[in-house]
Amino acid sequence: MDDLRLSLRLLRAFMFAVDNGSITGAATALNVAPSAVAAALGRVEAEFGTSLVVRARARGITATPAGRALAARIRPLIEDYSNVMQEGYALSQGLRGTLNIGYYAPVAPAFLPIILQKLQKQSLDLKFNLQECDNKTAQSGLLDGTLDIALFAGDDLLTGVETRPLMDLPPYALLPEGHDLATADVLQFSDLNNVPLVLLDLPVAGAYVRGLFRTTGVTPDIVATVSSVEMVRSLVGAGMGAAVLNMRPRTTLSYGGDALRAIPLIDGASLNLVSGRAAGAPRRLVQVFQDTLHSWFNSPAALDLIAQPPRPGQAGSDQP
Fold first, then answer.
1. What would the CATH number be for the domain defined by 8-93?
2. How far is residue 129's CA from residue 144's CA, in Å, rounded to a whole number?
3. How far apart are CA 135 and CA 128, in angstroms?
4. Residue pLDDT, tens place only, 175-201
5. CA dihedral defined by 302, 307, 309, 311, rounded to 10 degrees?
6. Which SS3 state, helix, strand or coil, does residue 269 take?
7. Which ranges carry the HTH lysR-type domain (predicted)?
8. pTM of the full predicted structure?
């Protein structure tokens, strides 16, 4: 049985006719022709197989007990529909509701709070749901509607996901202060030959770093594989080895309180950070967030997220 054979338009016309006691009165209120209201009455009665109104001369009508009962049930349905539509229009026109953000960016805490606070200043009706996820989970969330927007790295895109580039992330070597290589301005992958390596072994990131070593002909001496940036930084700070990363937080210390240095690796390909959302027109909140995000990444502050070779005349390397 198809429960949607009667449209809300037909049910609304029936309700107005009962409330007005007149086909012409309902037609005037709805700004339609009387014949459209009369046809709606006929469709509703035919669907339920019973007389719902008694028609009199001059197009006056009186609802039967069944008609009055049905109109009473229809009224909250129409009111709920109207409320849903108003809320939907508000979502497209204002900054309100919940924004579901997925991120596969190891140091997203270094920049996302700044951007979300900017949005929150524009509207106190905003809520945020942030989920750390990998590349594929982020994109799957966009396609199934559990995420509104996602930040992730890599070029392996799913059909139906639209992306905008945020930043190219060149690799750098993370070293404990005092390491023999930590005083260099720049390094090459060959400098990491025979150096113990702590590997951030996450989807995309792990394969990316292994690929860099393979491309440069260096065999890494992997002493630990871990799944969080902070554990990588803490192991490096404790002297377990070096690491190859792409983004850095705004601190020179590990969780363990050890000093760290970030030295650019000049012979490795960059990792691409993008924002993505499901194809099609987004609601206004999603578009505003994405625009604000990209505006921040085009600002000088975003450059703090990467280790860069010193400019001419500048001594020392960038630090994490």
1. 1.10.10.10
2. 16
3. 20
4. 999 999 999 999 999 999 999 999 999
5. 30
6. coil
7. 6-64
8. 0.68
